[in-house]
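A.,

Following up on our hallway conversation. Structure tokens first:
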């Protein structure tokens, strides 16, 4: 019999050591709310959806690993399939981090790809059978019909999150949907297009679905109905590409290390997020070449990547175990409200709202231990 043990990371309160005071009584912080979540509100991430990237050891010989969670259906599935194919072909073994642009991205792949300053003239041949994706695949349709991963009936995953108090991530609070829209959902019919004003500058609706930040449109004169796309928040992982119509294969990947570059949404495929080891990437030296690429003279700055493996292919005792707080849970609704309206003792004025990227979905590591 195995029992579930959590590996929790303590987060210190923001305070000056010289004037640190005992915190007064007040509302719980977002992290304190998350710590009250029942175990059934956490969703385990499948090993098939985790990548383990092993970097070269640091100067002291310490191992450096980065764990990436791949996005679930219906988002970016052609690219995530390619990434698994590349990992299983061991194509990523021996590549490197080739670009570090301050307050923007860290990018890894073949040193000779799209980098004339590297001095590399050859690129690794890609394995056969990779999907070729279209620009239409940057967004997903049909999210209204996505079932709950636990098999529970849901009218609508996104609206379930959107109708939670303040989980809308909009300064004007929760919205009321037209009766014709909700009636159509309940009857199983296709709902009529509606326009929602939520305060997000990049889409009609900013919310969290299936554990991920997304923006979308329910349909208007400019946008197809029921279209949603992932958001470029800190730590998200995307696919490098060349000029349109190229959409990238997944051989070149990057992660956001700065302020959310939302202008990239629907212009590049997002395929996942860093759930562990971000510090190994965000702290790398910045490149001096165009767009932060390392030049030929900076070849020694390229971080070698020893391997990237799908976690399900690793021995069971080497597989990382992570779970995320369900964005459909009551605890997440309270957490989202607390992030948008900080009432814990350090804060003075609640903001009244939050950007979609300022409500990160809590992810935690755990381990199993045998009962005595």
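Then the amino acids I'd put at each of the 372 positions:
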């Amino acid at each position: 019999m195995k029992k579930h043990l959590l590996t929790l990371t303590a987060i210190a309160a923001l305070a000056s050591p010289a004037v640190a005071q005992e915190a007064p009584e007040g509302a719980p912080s977002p992290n304190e709310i998350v710590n009250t979540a029942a175990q059934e509100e956490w969703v385990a991430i499948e090993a098939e959806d985790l990548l383990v990237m092993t970097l070269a050891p640091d100067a002291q010989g310490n191992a450096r690993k980065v764990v990436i969670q791949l996005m679930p259906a219906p988002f970016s599935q052609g690219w995530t399939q390619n990434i698994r194919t590349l990992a299983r072909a061991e194509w990523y073994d021996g590549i490197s981090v080739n670009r570090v642009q301050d307050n923007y991205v860290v990018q890894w792949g073949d040193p000779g790809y799209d980098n004339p300053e590297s001095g590399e003239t050859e690129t690794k041949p890609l394995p056969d059978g990779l999907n070729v994706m279209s620009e239409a695949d940057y967004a997903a349709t049909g999210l209204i019909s996505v079932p709950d991963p636990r098999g529970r009936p849901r009218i609508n995953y996104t609206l379930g999150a959107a109708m939670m108090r303040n989980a809308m991530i909009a300064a004007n609070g929760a919205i009321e949907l037209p009766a014709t829209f909700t009636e159509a959902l309940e009857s199983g019919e296709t709902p009529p297009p509606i326009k929602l004003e939520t305060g997000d500058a990049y889409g009609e609706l900013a919310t969290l679905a299936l554990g991920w930040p997304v923006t979308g449109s329910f349909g208007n004169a400019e946008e197809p109905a029921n279209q949603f796309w992932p958001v470029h928040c800190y730590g998200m992982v995307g696919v490098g590409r060349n000029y349109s119509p190229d959409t990238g294969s997944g051989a070149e990947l990057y992660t956001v290390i700065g302020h959310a570059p939302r202008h990239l949404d629907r212009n590049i495929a997002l395929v996942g997020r860093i759930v562990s080891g971000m510090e190994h990437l965000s702290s790398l030296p910045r490149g001096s070449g165009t767009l932060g690429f390392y030049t030929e003279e900076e070849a020694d700055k390229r971080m070698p990547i020893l391997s990237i493996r799908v976690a399900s292919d690793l021995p069971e005792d080497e597989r990382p175990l992570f779970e995320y707080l369900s964005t459909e849970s009551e605890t997440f609704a309270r957490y989202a409200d607390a992030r948008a309206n900080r009432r814990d003792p350090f804060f003075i004025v609640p903001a009244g709202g939050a950007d979609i990227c300022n409500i990160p979905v809590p992810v935690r590591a755990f381990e199993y231990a045998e009962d005595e």
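Residues 15 and 198 are 34 Å apart (CA to CA). Curious whether your intuition agrees with the design.

B.
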